[in-house]
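Hey team,

Filing this mostly as a record. A colleague (T.K.) asked me to run one chain through the structure pipeline before their review meeting, and I want the input and output archived in the tracker in case anyone asks later how it was produced. No errors, nothing strange. Just documentation.

Input sequence:
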Amino acid sequence: MLLAQQIKFLLIMKVNLRKQHKPKMVLSSSICCLLLYIFIVVSFISPINSLETPNHQSLNQTFRSEQELQNLKKTIATRLRQINKPAVKTIQIPNGDIIDCVLIHRQLAFDHPLLKGQKPMGLPKSLREDNQIGNMGDFQLGSFYDESCPNGTIPIRRVTEQDMLRAYSINSFGTKVVNQIPHDHAIITMSDGEYFGAQAAFNVWRPYVESQSEFSLSQMWLASGTYGNDLNTIEAGWHVYPYLYGDDRTRFFIYWTADAYKSTGCYNLACPGFVHTNKNFPIGAELPKLSSYQGTQYSITIKIMKDKNNGNWLLLYGDGHIIGYWPATLFTHLKYVADEVHFGGEIVNQKPGGSHTSTTMGSGHFPEEGFGKAAYIRNMQVIDSDNNLIALDNPSYVATNPNCYNIQGKTSPKWGDHIYFGGPGRTHKCS
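Output structure:
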């Protein structure tokens, strides 16, 4: 069980005990609270499935001392101090997010052993002249909130105690939990060349996510290395992920790994690595405008490109605005070049109730429904060794479970290479 589910179980147990009138069975409020807090300790110390195994221990056997409770509190507080750097200014967002304006040279990225003592690389304010898509439907920087961060700072979404309590463990917060849970993909893939970046416009929706630990996303991947071994990836797009944020809002996100998601990398800015440089753009922020079925369609433009001056991977948004960069030193294979580029959708299938999840991908509609109904990614391009944006050459299409989610590829003068993708999840054909 996830930690929140365990807490709910104990609260129910506490209420039931209070309803009993036998004096010997009545627990004081203070004892019940102590049991509840100590159970939280166990959730972080013991394996997450310890109460679900055939030989599970009784609750009394798993309780720990009050000292361990205090140690847990200290551990959470220490971890939060590591992630949440001191703020020059704090902005409260109406959706409940807290944005801290942190001095750019004090951000978490520079806690990385390979980046300690460094300062942000000098970057141009934008690369608008390289942008060939335009900003049709793109969100403007600074539209996420009415206030702005001061010069010399960057906006960072604050990590809270509640965020930590949703994690499988304190140390795993912000990372992908690699296990045997199946993922479904509907993607287009380039894998026959050397790629120095990619760019596309991503249609934005709010897919339904059935389980807190499931997600639904639309993104692009740059990858190099061996899957399951030493895979390097850089990822950017939008997703809905209740486990990470505690809500079902559509948010912009990034991810990276240098060892196939084993021990390196994280979402957004939850670990040292990605260097944020744009004072107007909070990574992990809610996207304020969403597409509607048979209604207005909105998209965001994302570009990742190799900086030939230093080898870093730049992240750009909208009309060529630089958000920051992944230092080349984070990687092994991606230190040089990507050998794969993917665009498309992905979901996690926890199989709640024993059948396929009803989590939707994209708009929740199949690609054959087309514009205004199905999700799309348009103007997909890759970057060659001369920094030229070029069309996709002989791409492959992969739908791991086409009865649940599918993909169609098209080409047109205005939209270039583009795809429609997605689906509803569990139906009579997807079970």
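Quick notes for T.K.: The chain is about 15% helix and 25% strand. The first strand starts at residue 89 and ends at 92.
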